[in-house]
What we know:
rod-shaped
Amino acid sequence: MQVLENKIRSLEKFLRCIRNQRRGLYGCVAGLGDVTGSILYATGSELGGDRSMVKNLFGAYSRNVESNGVGTSSKRQRLPYSSAELAAMEVRAMECIRQLLLRSAEALFLLQLLSQHHVTRLFQGFNANLWQELVQLTFCQLVCSEEGDRLATRLISSLMEYYTGPDGRGTVDDISGRLREGCPSYFKESDYKFFLAVEYLERAAVTPDSEEKANLAREAFNFLSKVPESADLQTVCKRFEDLRFYEAVVRLPLQKAQALDPAGDASNDQIDAATREHALAQREQCYEIITNALRSLKGDSLQREFGSPVRPAVRSTIDNVSRKKYISQIAQLGVQSPDRVFHEYLYRTMIDLGLEDELLEYGGPDLVPFLQNAGREPLQEVRAVSGITSATSLMGQTGAAIPSNEAKYLDLLARYYVLKRQHVLAAHVLLRLAERRSSTDAKDVPTLDQRRQYLSNAVLQAKSASNSDGLLGSTRGAFDNGLLDLLEGKLAVLRFQIKIKEELEALASRLEPPVDISDSAQNGLAHDDNFTTNANLANTAREKAKELSLDLKSITQLYNEYAVPFELWEMCLEMLYFANYSGDADSSIVRETWARLIDQALSRGGIAEACSVLKRVGSNTYPGDGAVLPLDTLCLHLEKAAQERLESGVESVGDEDVSRALLAACKGAAEPVLNTYDQLLSSGAILPSPNLRIRLLRSVLVVLREWAMSVFAQRMGTSVTGASLILGGTFSPEQTTIINQGIRDKITSAANRYMTEVRRLTLPQNRTEAVYRGFRELEESLINSFSFDRF
Length: 791
């Protein structure tokens, strides 16, 4: 092979000498342009330029000479090429032959160099497919085909690893000098820099000194930065990961992505889609190297073998603090890049890996547009108060359908606004998340508890809104108030929806028959209309509860479609009071609803249940003055029911049950309750029965006692129970004067008046004496310095 190489090089040198000296046809076609071409890729340039300016190198063409010997014929056969073109084509063929000779000589040199080494060792890292290609490779393919060029590069790579490995026999300079001299077309300058960088990485891997390790990695990075497009980054970046030199892991792939797509076709919507997709695919191959480093640090990818095919690379374990530092470094380096396509790729990867905190902390200025576009509906900046819609008009609106994969971007956008103290924008995003409707996939439906959490957070953000949100001072206050009212209203309605859903589920559970009864009914052993009705009602309640879990409902829908049909009167009352339906207690709707609620409670648990419901609902709706509670209706309804149940023996009802329930409903305010009883007692048409009147008078006595106790407790700074304990013995006149003189006069006058009312009753004395004595003792205790322990 050496002899053959020498002869081929001598022939090539002879042709090159003729070309350089421009002898023969070379001199004739000088100035016609590049006619050399390339034997590798068959892309040699044809003759160019203005052919009218090409000199006729072979003399004037005689148009009077006939090809068939005839003297002067007006018709001549036209040649396909001119003589100048034919000369140029001949020169090009000679140049192709010269390049073929040079390439063949270099291939022979490479084969000789490989044969001087342990071939089996060089090829031991090849897989089966590569072995097969190598066995079938011909000399012609090695010289003239791209496949041969690729295999030659792989052979040179194995040879360089033999020299640069830990058990190698030299350095890159030792072998690269011979390769660059003997086969420069196979071993280019970029290859030299690449393998020189690999040598530095190998030295850094075995260097114990951390500073020297960093310097060697930096040198390798500098070499590779000059030839990023020709480097095998998949392998070399893994080596940089071993060294924890993440600057190279980020910057080298980005440089190669720019080299592969210098025109930016990946983000150009004006070009052909196939071209754009191809450019994007090339870029993403480079981006994947960076994101794989993130996955490796996060621990989401398998530890794959990389580096030299002969030996696996060993990666040191790192602690969580260092891991977080490296992840932050990759994020920061990535954001510093001007490559917007990579930013989106990086952002999506970090979200998929659960690195939201790092993304929000180090994300670039394009993070907000990215999150907005990923959420499909960009959030518009609020610029004027005129764009604010009142809470009342927006209360029944629902949001758009947002799939869960888009909702996560909106959730991140809200977190970003909170982090940047843009509270108003955060509140709007949270509102969109809370109102989003379900898509076709039921898995995308947020639960009502999740919606409540979104709205609760939105309320907090609206309360925290400040001038930093970018709103003018004159409009910010009105905007914040309008937004806050809207959010608080929606949150209250959502709480009603959650309660109604729970009530319907509980109703369905109560009405659903036991399994044994259901089986017997199916077998024909039980036929009960009530059973069928309950089963149908349970199914309906369960379906309605499922409807409520899908999306937000307006307060009108909750009242008319869910609460009223299922007789959830307590919820109806709460919604009526929340919506300020009438503004006073004279509303027939409110009175009728209260009556239905009390009747429902009586049917379920008697007076005890009714009083319990009154305490719970009344205290939630009592505003402080008793104006919106129909106390007269409630008092008369409960007192009549208590009297009837007591007389019929259905239930044992105490004298204080109703009055104390009314006091609890009014949050301990005795005067409105006393006025209600006084109004009822003053009307003989309403209370014609003496038995009912004496019952109301007993209740009045309880109210007056509680009033006196509460006033004393308030002045003493203790509770009513504490006051009753203090008043367990006698107290001095000074203590008596603690009670406000005006209130004492009111209680004393009422006690005196009701003593007279008791005497007027046409009832036996044994039924009225205890009530009469109670009023008298109360009056005397307030006038005189007597003990309160008697009552």
